[in-house]
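Customer escalation, tier 2.

The customer says the design service returned an amino acid string that "doesn't look like it belongs to this structure." They asked us to rerun it and document both sides in this ticket. The original structure tokens are below, unchanged.
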């Protein structure tokens, strides 16, 4: 087994400050419903695949859904596979915070957030050539999904930021590859 890179405690004050600022939202039942639903619906990128199919149907371009799903599959294979396995970071302590709604608890490293990475990749693909009326809601949903991981205490804020950055880098790298293979 190879040694893992331990995420430095340097980020902990940032994570603690964001977590403390976020805490009042965790007592709001409407915010809880929104963020828990967003977090759960993005497990396995289900919401993104569904939106890809919806956009493919509306544009009569089935390859749009295929390209989106292929990019999400590659993103997941990279982020949730080798990238997460490189790092060692505990998930936020939920023992001191009971969850008001049920939630699947991942067993992988907290760093980086796969939900945030997938949200960025999905928004990039779903918004390619889309009208503004479509782009803004998709970006808003991507933001809600990524930040939901902070709200539900599955990730630290810096995990989400790193996941979003990884998603952006992968989006830039995957576009030419996916276009070459799938048109």
């Amino acid at each position: 087994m190879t040694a893992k890179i331990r995420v430095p405690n340097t980020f902990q004050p940032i994570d603690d400050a964001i977590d403390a600022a976020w805490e009042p939202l965790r007592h709001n039942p409407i915010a809880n419903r929104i963020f828990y639903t967003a977090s759960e619906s993005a497990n396995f990128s289900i919401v993104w695949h569904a939106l890809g199919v919806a956009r493919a149907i509306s544009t009569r371009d089935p390859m749009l859904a295929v390209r989106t799903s292929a990019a999400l599959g590659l993103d997941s294979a990279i982020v949730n596979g080798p990238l997460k396995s490189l790092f060692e970071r505990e998930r936020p302590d939920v023992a001191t915070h009971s969850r008001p709604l049920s939630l699947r608890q991942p067993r992988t490293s907290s760093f980086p957030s796969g939900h945030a990475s997938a949200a960025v990749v999905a928004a990039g693909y779903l918004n390619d050539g889309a009208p503004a009326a479509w782009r803004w809601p998709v970006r808003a949903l991507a933001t809600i999904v990524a930040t939901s991981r902070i709200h539900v205490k599955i990730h630290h804020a810096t995990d989400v930021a790193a996941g979003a950055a990884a998603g952006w880098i992968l989006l830039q790298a995957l576009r030419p590859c996916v276009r070459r293979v799938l048109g």
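Tier 2 assessment: The sequence is consistent with the input. The CA atoms of residues 52 and 66 lie 8 Å apart. The helical segments are 12-22, 29-41, 46-59, 62-86, 114-126, 132-151, 157-182. Sent an explanation to the customer and offered a walkthrough call.
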